[in-house]
Amino acid sequence: MKEYIANYGYIRYEQTRELISSIKTSYILTKMMMISRLVRLSKRQLHTIVSREIIKPSSPTPSHLKTHNLSWLDQITINTFMPMVVFYPNNGIYGSSHGKILDLKNSLSQTLTKYYPFAGRHADIAPSHVDCNDDGAELLEASVSITLSDFLQKSQHEDLDQFFPNDLTWNKGNRKGYDIQSDGVIPLAIQVNHFECGGMVVAVSLSHKIADGSSLAHFFNDWAKVTRFCSREQKQEFPIDPRFIPFQNINMNFDGISFEVSNDCITRSFMFPNSKINDLKNKVKTMTAESGQPITNPTRVEVLNWLLYKCSVAAATKNNPGSCRPTGVGHLINKRNKMMEPLPENAIGNMYFIMEILKSTESEMKPESFIGELKKQKMQFHRLRNIENAFGLLSKMSSETTFEEQKRKIDGAYICTSLCGYPAYEIDFGWGKPVKVTVGGNLRKNSFILMDAPNGDGIEALVCLGKQDMAIIQTDPELLEFC
């Protein structure tokens, strides 16, 4: 009997232990499922791709235009995609989303007859030309499970990435910008995003190998003009006239400067109203007058470039005291109207110069030194006669040693690009003007992009810095004084 009781007690003990173990396992599994669900919700994709197709030009490219040679500058330009995104509310002007997308496809097909290299293919490594074979651009449609106003109020810069086709932003995303049949790069990809409220976002990714920011803005505007024209049921095509400048076939066999992606950087937007920019200009005028080197006519871009650079260097110095390295700014300028024989604004391709302002000491960062050097270099570019003269200078830099030297300078510098003055807020597809236009993707670490603010009231600066530097600059009183 004692033996039975002992055995019975042992059995009950084992059953109880198994029960407790089972309860613990169930609790852990339930908790893991809850955590997993929360993670899925926090990382929930707001968009769902609903269609994907290739849009080809409405008429074939003439035989004498089948090969578009890339210039010296095209070939040494960074091998990446430029991402621009435009936001439109549902203002009730236009019909259904289905009607909008049909007009967009039709007008894109017509627009590509003029922008024929955008519908071609180019090699991924060291391209020297575009094969204008009319294989077409890629167009995706996506539905977004949120209202446009909610997104604009609650989103951060990185939330823009999902609106771009195949994640094609500066770092090339998931590398789906390829034509599987030809192994070539599809230069142009577009994603049209439909919000719950009827608002729309149109995002375009364009290969930087064949065009710059000015070219992308002109393409966007021309496509919008054609769309407005098509929606009126006009039979003839809308006259647009982009200028693709012909170049001799020169194969540099240069891979181009790579776009280095850092997981330690973050991009944030800073808005500078016109009134505050005027205050900054007056501050610069006063400071330079007191120094004995007065600058009486600083531009908006010049003073903001100086302020952003000065505050960024201060943040980096605070995070890394004692480590001083030569630095400076590479300022990109549109050279179309900077030569004695200017190019038309609708000249398509890479038409920019990089001004190098190498300033590392505290005295060199003063506005009279920094802005004075900017103005001096601008005047030097004005002395260039024409595009042939400009590219002639580049041809002298064609050695690999020279390229590596230039790359080292750029790697150690902050990069500033101005898209101000481009008619971004005039991009009207027939639904009214956009409420927001910006550039997507995480920018190169230590870089600034300046764009006109909505309604023309100031400048929006997209700033990409290391996370520690960004934490400092977001609370910098000198910077925030002008925001």
How would you explain this protein's 3D organization?
The chain is of the alpha+beta class. The protein has three domains: about 45 residues; about 200 residues, Chloramphenicol Acetyltransferase; about 220 residues, Chloramphenicol acetyltransferase-like domain (Chloramphenicol Acetyltransferase). It is built from twelve helices and 19 strands. A hairpin with a 6-residue loop joins strand 18 and strand 19. Helix 3 packs across helix 5 and helix 7 packs across helix 11.
Task: Reconstruct the topology from this structure.
Layout lengths: L1 H41 L4 E9 L11 E3 L2 H5 L4 E8 L8 H18 L6 E2 L6 E3 L5 E8 L3 H7 L23 E2 L4 E2 L2 E8 L4 E8 L5 H18 L12 E2 L20 E8 L1 H18 L8 H20 L9 E6 L12 E2 L3 E6 L9 H16 L4 H9 L4 H12 L2 E5 L17 E4 L7 E6 L6 E8 H7 L3 H4 L3
Parallel strand pairs: 6-9, 11-14, 13-16, 16-18
Antiparallel strand pairs: 1-6, 2-5, 3-10, 3-17, 4-5, 7-8, 9-10, 12-19, 13-15, 18-19
Helix pairs in contact: 3-5, 7-11
SSE-based structural type? alpha+beta
Q: Can you tell me the CATH topology of the largest domain?
A: Chloramphenicol Acetyltransferase
Give the overall pLDDT as a whole number: 83
Overall tally of domains: 3
The CATH architecture of the largest domain comes to 2-Layer Sandwich
In order across it, which strands form the biggest sheet? 1-6-9-10-3-17
- CATH-assigned homologous superfamily of the largest domain: Chloramphenicol acetyltransferase-like domain
